[in-house]
Design goal:
The complex is a heterodimer of chains A (348) and B (254). By secondary structure, chain A is mainly α. Chain A has helices at 13-29, 33-51, 56-59, 61-81, 105-131, 134-140, 146-175, 187-210, 226-245, 249-267, 273-276, 289-311, 331-338, 342-345, and strands at 82-83, 88-92, 101-104. Chain B has a domain at 62-197: Ferric Hydroxamate Uptake Protein, Chain A, domain 1 (Beta Complex), CATH 2.170.130. Classes of the chains: A mainly alpha (348), B alpha+beta (254).
């Protein structure tokens, strides 16, 4: 199914960011097995569908394998440290320091749920990171945030670039007959990797400098109050996030409103700046059916989740301690999470 | 969204790998479902047992008081043969005798933290962050005390794992963020409140107070129809994911 306006496989980043938010929310707010399973299946489907036409997804494979390893470690950690639950499957003898005590199915199950949530978040992050059109995202941001966005995109692409360089160096050295044995055998691989990384950094810095990164023109100079206001806005944002996490929604709402107000004013162009420095676009972003489908589906999934959080928050939660009981099921929520599969329908 | 007959997963060496991948996914999901619904039946016999020590020759005994903050209090008398036991051991043995469930979480070398006693407390996830305490300094959590003089309850900041309990000690766990809120007690009075008879050599424990509070939390399990609906939705999402992943294969090179 070819979607007109799909921009040659690159969709508008705003639709992907909305999808990422909607997909990440369940794993962040609860450990309900049905909800986590629905999200995991949906994001695996999207990743599988988009991996064919997006080779960048494969570059994130290393991080995914690392996440798998850490998930297994997390499960073991939960089993070995939580002394709770009514279903004991083994007992660590008292002679073993720190770990002595009963090992329970309850702790194992909760560890598996935590691993599912962590894996879902990693898959969502790596998929969005690979499919998002970063240059287009930079063009869509306000001028004031361009520097931050450039720094963020450089950071975000560092890992896949390093992974690709590692593979290239390994192949080149193998072609020369190098067979790594032991720690000393890694030296011919690590030295070129570091040297290549430094080379790439210098080239990138020169390219950014040549394009005036971080510079300001006389007409675009920030007002003296904009810096402190931005700092206050960020502080209010952090405070709001803390109050939200601490269960004080009223204070969080006030702090986050102040943060939005402060950052909005700080990011606002000084009058007349637009006439002095004008940003041009080589290619205007297009909004096609693909973007519409993803945005509508993600917004609907997000709306269902927010409604469930407001009226039936137990649908997200699950606690297997002290007894392993059946988890709550909200069919509307599960059906809404099925909409997260929408990007798979518009894959190139 | 249907699979094309020329799909590479159906010819050459791809099918085995694809089939293996989906078989792994299916087995994983099956294991999850089995773990969710089958585990209680499979291992139901293995209930937690934390005592197991011969108490007939126990020369030492300590008292335990657990105050839930809602009017209920659990009292227990714990004889033990060892010279000392940890505060967590005392709590586990006393609560087991009183048939009160306990939830703790390990903090490595710092020992175990008490998350939930009966239904008072919080799940492990929250417990790992702040030991169930809310954002305010006087928000309640399971706090550990020892009576050092009649009516004087001193907080034990080392926690249950690092605190040694010896013969004649009287310890308390209180759901509070401030003081213990307990009256002066003696081992004999705690033994009476726990329901011990004279010369009792076994661990005895009992919860007193408004009994209707203990079972206020009612839960409704999902019906089989709800399970079927959830299974159907998950199957549809899974089938959609499989079809989406397989449909997008590039055509084979000639």
């Amino acid at each position: 199914m070819e979607i007109p306006g799909a921009n040659a496989g690159r969709l508008d980043p705003r639709s992907w960011l909305l999808w990422g938010t909607a997909a990440a929310l369940p794993a962040l707010v609860g450990r309900n097995p049905f909800v986590l399973l629905a999200v995991l299946l949906a994001v695996l489907g999207v990743r599988g569908a988009w991996s064919r036409g997006t080779p960048q997804i494969a570059a994130w494979g290393g991080l995914l394998r690392l996440a798998l390893i850490f998930s297994v470690v997390g499960v073991l950690f939960n089993v070995l440290t939580v002394r709770a639950g009514d279903l004991v499957f083994a007992e660590v003898p008292g002679a073993v320091p720190l770990l002595a005590g009963p090992l329970t199915i309850n702790a194992l199950f909760y560890g598996v749920l935590g691993a599912m949530a962590a894996l879902s978040l990693v898959i969502i992050g790596t998929t969005v990171g690979a499919v998002v059109d970063w240059p287009m995202l930079l063009r869509l941001l306000p001028s004031r945030l361009t520097d931050v966005a450039v720094a963020g995109s450089v950071t975000w692409t560092m890992l896949p670039r390093t992974t690709a360089a590692w593979h290239e160096i390994r192949e080149a050295q193998a072609a020369r007959g190098h067979r790594p044995r032991g720690a000393r055998g890694l030296l011919p691989l690590i030295v070129p990797l570091l040297a290549g990384g430094l080379d790439r950094s210098l080239t990138l810095a020169e390219a950014l400098e040549a394009r005036g990164f971080g510079g300001t023109s006389s007409g675009d100079a920030p007002r003296p109050w904009q810096g402190p206001l931005a700092a206050l806005g960020l502080t209010a944002g952090v405070l709001g996030a803390y109050l939200l996490a601490a269960g004080r929604p009223a204070g969080a709402a006030v702090a986050l409103t102040l943060a939005a107000f402060g950052l909005g004013i700080a990011a606002h162009h000084p009058p007349g700046a637009a006439e002095v420095v004008r940003r041009t676009r080589y290619r205007e972003p297009t909004w096609g059916r693909g973007e519409t489908i993803i945005t509508v589906a993600a917004a609907a999934a997000l709306a269902v989740q927010v409604s469930a959080l407001a009226f039936a928050p137990a649908a997200f939660g699950y606690d297997p301690y002290p007894s392993l009981t059946p988890p709550a099921i909200n069919l509307w929520l599960l059906a809404g999470l099925g909409l997260l599969l929408a990007p798979a329908a518009v894959a190139p | 969204m249907s699979a094309s007959p020329s799909h590479p997963a159906m010819v050459g060496g791809q099918p085995k790998r694809a089939a293996r991948g989906w078989a792994t996914l299916a087995l994983t999901l099956l294991a999850l479902v089995a773990l969710l619904f089958g585990a209680p039946a499979l291992v139901g016999a293995g209930r937690v047992s934390v005592t197991g020590t011969p108490l007939a020759d126990s020369p030492n005994r300590a008292g335990l008081v657990v105050q839930y903050g809602d009017g209920r209090t659990t009292y227990a008398i714990v004889p033990f043969p060892e010279p000392t036991i940890s505060g967590i051991d005392l709590l586990e043995r006393g609560l087991l005798a009183a048939d009160v469930p306990l939830l703790t979480v390990g903090f490595g070398g710092l020992g175990a933290g008490v998350c939930q006693i009966a239904e008072t407390g919080c799940p492990v996830g929250d417990c790992r962050r702040r030991l169930c305490q809310g954002p305010k300094a006087n928000d309640p959590y399971w706090r550990y005390f020892r009576q050092v003089a009649p009516g004087t309850w001193r907080a034990l900041p080392l926690g249950g794992s690092a605190t040694k309990v010896g013969d004649g000690d009287l310890d308390a766990w209180s759901w509070t963020g401030t003081e213990a809120g307990l009256p002066a007690l003696s081992l004999e009075k705690v033994a009476t409140l726990a329901g011990a008879t004279g010369g009792d050599a076994t661990v005895v424990g009992r919860t007193v107070g408004p009994t209707d509070l203990a079972s206020t939390a009612t839960r409704t399990d999902p019906t089989w129809g709800t399970y079927a609906g959830a299974g159907g939705i998950l199957a549809i999402i899974g089938a959609g994911a499989v079809m989406a992943a397989r449909r997008r294969a590039p055509p084979l090179a000639p």
